[in-house]
Amino acid sequence: MAEAYIVDAVRTAGGRRGGRLAGVHPVDLGAAVFDAIGERNDFDTKAIDDVITGCVMQGGQQTMDVGRNAVLASNLPDSIPAVTIDRQCGSSQQSIQFAAQAVMSGTQDVVLASGIESMTRVPMGSTAALFMKEGLGNYKSERLEEAYPGVMFSQFDGAEMIVEKYGQTKDDLNEYSLESHKRAAKAVESGAFDNEIVPVKVETPEGEEMHKVDEGIRFDASLEGISGVKTVKEGGYISAANASQICDGASAVLVVSEQALKDHGLTPRARIHNLTVTGGDPVIMLEEPLFATDRALERAGMNIDDIDLYEVNEAFAPVPLAWMKHTGGSHDKLNVNGGAIALGHPLGASGTKLMATLLNALEARGGKYGLQTMCEGGGQANVTIIERLG
């Protein structure tokens, strides 16, 4: 079977809700990372066969195929088509997998996988809420209601269920969250993100600046401060401090074939080693990365000890904690530069964002194999394993 290679991976620094990226249209966020891919790599961008863009809240400024609009707003040729997809939080990780499948099938040679999400401008849940407000119903049909009576498929409920199923405590969640901030702060201070972040011009009260540091990181985070944040449910475990931060951002990964490497003189940074996606229990929902990882490792003929680094999206602290307990993975290899609790989770943009971080971390540490996974609405999960080259 033909191989698929990653040539480059970039992202914007995350912006808090209502923060530094709030004044930037999501289409322009996408255009910024598309431009960076063209500028950082010496090839004719007319060779890009397709752009696949993950976006969860496809409403308002993120409608009308936001990926195509970002192409039109960028320096890429207008001749490049684009499609926007939704696999919930795994949308742009799925864009990587679709791009790799296109390349591996031989139908395309150069595909730009990407993600765009402005959670400030198109708030989470706003698309569903609009139709409910207008009396047009919600996503649950009669048959879906019959199958899952009274269930609203809440990620918060799923996170609470994982805490109890895996014997976690609120202290476990808060201690994990503190470590996420510490690692993210250290990554910024050491320059670990410099090669993956695309600076974005923003307007601030002080004037025009370049946004290039993830805005959600609490450099002075303390266990006392995190523990003092009120839980969402009375007597529950999940709080805003041990869950991912609402975030604005965009990201992109250039995926090519072996022929494209030769034709355009490109140097691959990694090879796609395994592509897996699974579905499971939509009620507990966030647990599926555990079982998807089992399947991916089995299909790849590997075990967890073969993996040098892993990115497990920190949608909620219980998820990576349960993942480590289930797989036997080491915290020393997990989200080594912090995760979404500190850096933010821009929904549809998180998949390609995590890949940029994973690839750069592998290079910095001399690791060979990296694994990325995340929980997704509907009880789904993607797993992508890469092999660093060079």
TrEMBL record:
Entry keywords, A to Z: Acyltransferase, Transferase
CDD domains given in the database record: thiolase
Domain called Thiolase C-terminal: residue spans: 267-388
InterPro entries membership: Thiolase, Thiolase-like, Thiolase_C, Thiolase_CS, Thiolase_N
Active site (record annotation): 89 (acyl-thioester intermediate), 345 (proton acceptor), 375 (proton acceptor)
Domain Thiolase N-terminal: start-end pairs: 5-259
Membrane-crossing segments per the record: none
UniProt-listed Pfam families: Thiolase_C (PF02803), Thiolase_N (PF00108)
A GO molecular function held by the record: acetyl-CoA C-acyltransferase activity
Family that this chain belongs to: Belongs to the thiolase-like superfamily. Thiolase family.
Name this protein carries in UniProt: Acetyl-CoA C-acetyltransferase
